[in-house]
Amino acid sequence: MEKDLYGVCPFVTAQKILTGKWTLLIMHHLNLKTMRFSELQRALPHLTQSTLTKQLRMMEGNGLVIRTVYSQIPPKVEYSLSDLGYEFKPVLSTLETWGNKYLDFLKKN
């Protein structure tokens, strides 16, 4: 049933696009600035190189991330949010606010 709703239901579609344990954190970091692969690795030290590669490819395929390759030696590759990815900024901000409230809830309980 979920496959039938992809591209039809906004919630199923968004859930499918944002799949992946690291997608939101990668979007958070790229929302702050354009980054090279190694910068993303340093920002997310618990993420393996292969998982980061897989996540970035998936996000690029979904139109959230732009991969820019510069013709130089040594090769330089940068990742940034696409226009569609930047439109997610208010959602990231709202998630941060809600996450902080939930952290307060956890501290009290």
Defining traits:
109 residues, Arc Repressor Mutant, subunit A, globular, ArsR-like_HTH
Account of the 3D structure:
It is a single chain. The mean pLDDT is 93. Strand 2 and strand 3 form a beta hairpin. Strands 1-3-2 form a 3-stranded antiparallel beta sheet. The chain has 109 residues and is α+β, with helices and mostly antiparallel strands. The radius of gyration is 16 Å and the shape is globular. It has a single domain, classed as Arc Repressor Mutant, subunit A (Orthogonal Bundle). It is built from 7 helices and 3 strands; from the N terminus they run H-H-H-E-H-H-E-E-H-H. The protein has helices at residues 2-5, 10-17, 23-32, 37-43, 49-61, 83-86, 89-108; strands at 35-36, 65-70, 76-81. One of its GO terms (molecular function) is DNA binding. Residues 9-107 form the HTH hxlR-type domain. Pfam families: HxlR. Keywords: DNA-binding, Transcription, Transcription regulation. This is DNA-binding transcriptional regulator, HxlR family.
